[in-house]
Amino acid sequence: MLNKLNAVNDVKIYSVFDEEFKTFGRVVKGYDFSSSIKFMKERTPIPEKGNFYYPSIPELENDPIYKKVKETLYGDMDIQIGFCNGRNSTYNGFEYHKGSEINIAVTPFCLVLGHIWDIEDNKYYVGKEKVFYVPEGTVIEMYQTTLHLSPCKVNDEGFKDIVILPRGTNTKLDNKVINEDKESVLLLQRNKWVIAHKDREPLIKQGAFPGLIGENKEIKY
Predict the structure, then answer these.
(1) I need a labelling partner for 83 at 20 to 30 A (CA). Which of 127, 142, 148, 169 fits?
(2) Dihedral angle at the C-alpha atoms of 178, 94, 103, 54, nearest 10 degrees?
(3) Do the Cβ atoms of 111 and 14 come closer than 8 Å?
(4) Handedness of CA 147, 211, 53, 14 (dihedral sign)
(5) Whose CA is closest to 131, among 153, 113, 105?
(6) CA–CA separation, 90 and 219 (whole Å)
(7) Which residues have a Cβ under 8 Å from the Cβ of 82 and sit 6 or more positions away?
(8) Tally of CA atoms within 13 A in the half-sphere of 69 that contains its CB
(9) Nearest-5° angle of CA 181, CA 183, CA 185?
(10) For 71-84, what is the mean pLDDT?
């Protein structure tokens, strides 16, 4: 699959098992997500268009793996387990959180990743990012300094992704306060700072700052 993706795209696509992933995150071992993956495959749909994202799903949080992830990967902090299913194939923008994000690839997909230190005056210029292929069944941790957004599909069916984050992340923000800190402009939801491509209308309409500059590239397969 990786060779095929590189043959049809004009950007280099790496694997999360490559050295290039080390500044963005790590591949996580030692956790059995098989029952969560089974639930995702059997009981969650992929939309005909766009993406579904649900921050917190009771069936996933009732899985015994929840306790182990909470106590070890997050140092006993409160967490949420949800999912993102969809058919996205373009960059669209970037988000980041204060705290790592765990992704479990129920299906294979690609992730477009950047570093927060490459944001300048709330702008990120296309060309500094790297694209990574995540094989089915792979568990990764993305560090809080990693810019990311929706996965990109690598087949016609779309993608399914389990998403673990600190509790409350990506939920409605009750009160947005903009102050002299430039970063305050980027806060869109709880623990969710976003820069969007100007052509990504759904994000712009939500109030995301149009800070992704350059071509809104599409991942082909």
Answers:
(1) 127
(2) 60
(3) no
(4) negative
(5) 113
(6) 6
(7) 53, 54, 55, 56, 57, 60, 162, 163, 165
(8) 30
(9) 95
(10) 98
**Domain 2-169, classified CATH 3.40.50.2300, yes or no:** no
Once rounded to an integer, what is the mean pLDDT over residues 81-88? 98
Q: In the structure, what pLDDT confidence band is assigned to residue 64 with cuts at 50, 70 and 90?
A: very high
Enumerate the domain spans of the chain: 2-169
Stated pTM of the model: 0.97
- Band of residue 214 on the pLDDT scale cut at 50, 70, 90: very high
> CA separation (Å) from 62 to 30, 36, 67?
19, 10, 9
Instruction: Give me the residues paired with residue 144 across strands.
Output: none
The string of pLDDT tens digits covering residues 35-50 is 999 999 999 999 999 9
Instruction: Read off the amino acid at residue 95.
Output: E
What is the rounded distance in angstroms from the CA atom of residue 203 to the CA atom of residue 70? 30
User: Which tokens hold the place of 176?
Assistant: 């947005």
- Residue found under tokens 């309409």: 205
Distance CA 183, CA 26 (A): 26
Gap between the Cα atoms of 44 and 38, Å rounded: 10
Cα distance between residue 188 and residue 19, in whole Å:
32
Helices assigned H by DSSP within the chain: 2-8, 34-43, 58-61, 65-68, 201-206
CB 77 within 8 A of CB 165: no
Residues 6 or more apart in contact with residue 30 via CB below 8 angstroms = none
